[in-house]
Amino acid sequence: STAFGYTPLTSVTIPQNVKTIGEAAFECVSLTSLNFESFSNLERIESRAFYNNNLAGNLVLPESIKYIGKTAFFDNNLISVTFPSIATYFENQQDYLDNSFDSSVTINHNY
Questions:
Q1: Phi, psi angle pair for 99, to nearest 5°
Q2: How many Cβ atoms sit within 10 Å of the Cβ of residue 63?
Q3: CA 62 to CA 5: how far, in whole Å?
Q4: pLDDT tens digit string along 14-58?
Q5: Which is it for the CA torsion 17, 13, 57, 3, positive or negative?
Q6: Which phi and psi angles does 100 have, rounded to 5°?
Protein backbone atom coordinates (compact mmCIF):
# COMPACT_ATOMS: atom_id res chain seq x y z
CA SER A 1 0.00 0.00 0.00
CA THR A 2 2.44 2.67 1.26
CA ALA A 3 -0.07 5.44 0.51
CA PHE A 4 2.19 8.10 2.04
CA GLY A 5 5.26 5.94 2.50
CA TYR A 6 8.69 7.31 1.71
CA THR A 7 7.46 10.93 1.68
CA PRO A 8 8.83 13.87 3.70
CA LEU A 9 5.77 14.29 5.97
CA THR A 10 6.63 15.29 9.55
CA SER A 11 3.16 15.56 11.07
CA VAL A 12 -0.19 13.93 10.44
CA THR A 13 -3.62 14.19 12.04
CA ILE A 14 -5.92 11.25 11.34
CA PRO A 15 -9.44 12.55 10.58
CA GLN A 16 -12.30 11.25 12.72
CA ASN A 17 -14.01 9.48 9.78
CA VAL A 18 -11.01 7.19 8.99
CA LYS A 19 -11.71 3.62 10.12
CA THR A 20 -8.54 1.85 8.91
CA ILE A 21 -4.96 2.88 8.32
CA GLY A 22 -3.70 0.49 5.68
CA GLU A 23 -0.63 -1.69 5.66
CA ALA A 24 2.57 0.37 5.39
CA ALA A 25 0.52 3.55 4.83
CA PHE A 26 3.12 5.77 6.54
CA GLU A 27 6.12 3.44 6.38
CA CYS A 28 9.55 5.13 6.25
CA VAL A 29 8.18 8.66 6.55
CA SER A 30 9.80 11.30 8.74
CA LEU A 31 6.82 11.61 11.10
CA THR A 32 7.59 13.22 14.43
CA SER A 33 3.94 13.92 15.31
CA LEU A 34 0.86 11.70 15.09
CA ASN A 35 -2.53 12.94 16.27
CA PHE A 36 -6.08 11.66 16.13
CA GLU A 37 -9.07 13.98 15.79
CA SER A 38 -11.54 14.03 18.67
CA PHE A 39 -14.29 11.42 18.47
CA SER A 40 -12.11 9.24 16.25
CA ASN A 41 -13.71 6.24 14.54
CA LEU A 42 -10.37 4.56 13.85
CA GLU A 43 -10.69 0.80 14.42
CA ARG A 44 -7.67 -0.75 12.69
CA ILE A 45 -4.01 0.11 12.24
CA GLU A 46 -2.57 -2.50 9.89
CA SER A 47 0.94 -3.98 9.85
CA ARG A 48 3.85 -1.58 9.30
CA ALA A 49 1.45 1.40 9.16
CA PHE A 50 3.93 3.67 10.98
CA TYR A 51 7.05 1.52 10.69
CA ASN A 52 10.42 3.33 10.72
CA ASN A 53 9.44 6.89 11.57
CA ASN A 54 10.64 9.42 14.13
CA LEU A 55 7.62 9.26 16.45
CA ALA A 56 8.77 9.99 19.97
CA GLY A 57 7.36 10.43 23.45
CA ASN A 58 3.96 9.15 24.51
CA LEU A 59 1.26 7.97 22.14
CA VAL A 60 -2.36 7.67 23.26
CA LEU A 61 -4.49 5.61 20.90
CA PRO A 62 -8.14 6.57 20.37
CA GLU A 63 -10.88 4.75 22.31
CA SER A 64 -12.27 3.34 19.05
CA ILE A 65 -9.16 1.23 18.22
CA LYS A 66 -9.73 -2.53 18.11
CA TYR A 67 -6.75 -3.94 16.21
CA ILE A 68 -3.10 -3.08 15.59
CA GLY A 69 -1.05 -5.15 13.17
CA LYS A 70 2.46 -6.49 13.70
CA THR A 71 5.30 -3.95 13.50
CA ALA A 72 2.72 -1.14 13.16
CA PHE A 73 4.86 1.21 15.28
CA PHE A 74 8.18 -0.64 15.18
CA ASP A 75 11.42 1.30 14.75
CA ASN A 76 10.31 4.62 16.28
CA ASN A 77 11.40 6.49 19.39
CA LEU A 78 8.24 6.06 21.44
CA ILE A 79 8.53 5.94 25.22
CA SER A 80 5.02 4.69 25.94
CA VAL A 81 1.76 3.76 24.25
CA THR A 82 -1.64 3.87 25.96
CA PHE A 83 -4.31 1.51 24.71
CA PRO A 84 -8.06 1.97 25.19
CA SER A 85 -9.92 -0.39 27.48
CA ILE A 86 -12.02 -1.90 24.67
CA ALA A 87 -9.14 -3.02 22.47
CA THR A 88 -9.59 -6.56 21.17
CA TYR A 89 -6.42 -7.15 19.15
CA PHE A 90 -4.62 -9.55 21.49
CA GLU A 91 -4.78 -12.88 19.65
CA ASN A 92 -1.38 -13.78 21.09
CA GLN A 93 -0.56 -11.01 23.53
CA GLN A 94 3.17 -11.62 23.98
CA ASP A 95 3.76 -12.12 20.27
CA TYR A 96 1.80 -8.94 19.63
CA LEU A 97 3.75 -6.83 22.11
CA ASP A 98 7.09 -8.21 20.92
CA ASN A 99 6.34 -7.51 17.28
CA SER A 100 4.30 -4.29 17.19
CA PHE A 101 6.49 -1.98 19.24
CA ASP A 102 10.16 -1.65 20.07
CA SER A 103 11.10 -3.49 23.26
CA SER A 104 11.83 -0.24 25.10
CA VAL A 105 8.23 1.01 24.83
CA THR A 106 6.10 0.97 27.99
CA ILE A 107 2.60 -0.37 27.34
CA ASN A 108 -0.27 1.18 29.30
CA HIS A 109 -3.95 0.20 29.34
CA ASN A 110 -6.91 2.41 30.16
CA TYR A 111 -9.03 0.07 32.27
A1: -110, -5
A2: 15
A3: 22
A4: 999 999 999 999 999 999 999 999 999 999 999 899 999 999 998
A5: positive
A6: -100, -25
